[in-house]
Amino acid sequence: xxxxxxxxxxxxxxxxxxxxxxxxxxxxxxxxxxxxxxxxxxxxxxxxxxxxxxxxxxxxxxxxxxxxxxxxxxxxxxxxxxxxxxxxxxxxxxxxxxxxxxxxxxxxxxxxxxxxxxxxxxxxx
Length: 125
Ligand code: SF4
Ligand code: SF4
Known about the structure:
This protein is mainly alpha-helical.
């Protein structure tokens, strides 16, 4: 599964809220798959990924909020010690996101400006 770095955070904090019904349904399927199959291989990419595929903010393969998203991806990649082209099991990526972001003050620094931050901040994983 191809994922951009910051989606390693969003997937773990997902509680069924998305940009529209199609996006939410698709994200629910992805989250359920990864919860069930921890060893799923994740390929890190910078660019539109599996979640972006049906996002209403995906404009011909580019995120409409690209600048913000690229900054988040860069910060998360650094915190998790991954880069584009890396491949690792979801279990490992998720653990790095918990230890490298959620359990540190990086969480607020990276996600503080996101519209979902209050929801994610209070969502237990
Ligand atoms: S605050 Fe935004 S970027 Fe951070 S995990 Fe939640 S949805 Fe993803
Ligand atoms: S297109 Fe942009 S807003 Fe939509 S899921 Fe991808 S990164 Fe997030």
